[in-house]
Amino acid sequence: MKILIGKGSQGSSEDSPEDAFLGHREVFFDYEPMKTEIFKRERLEGGNRVGGPAVLVEYSSTIVIPPFAEAAVDEYGNIVMEII
Known about the structure:
The chain has one domain. Helices cover about 0% and strands about 50% of the residues. The strands form two sheets. A four-stranded antiparallel β-sheet has the order 1-4-7-8, with no helix packed on it. Strands 2-3-5-6 form a four-stranded mixed β-sheet, with no helix packed on it. The radius of gyration is 12 Å and the shape is globular. It starts with a strand and ends with a strand.
């Protein structure tokens, strides 16, 4: 599991970021299947980072983090993706 709990975690919710991990799925990137981690987006907190390949799921959207990227949750709850 590639979720990194940052120092900025607020810990204000009953669900902890560690509970965000839902499991693995095979997802195709560049025509190749890759074991990909699935996370529940609403359980992530400010300061958390997720390395790709990963998928963040929530009730109204899905965010795909490719293998060459990393996503961070900012202090406002936004997902900021960076190509690494």
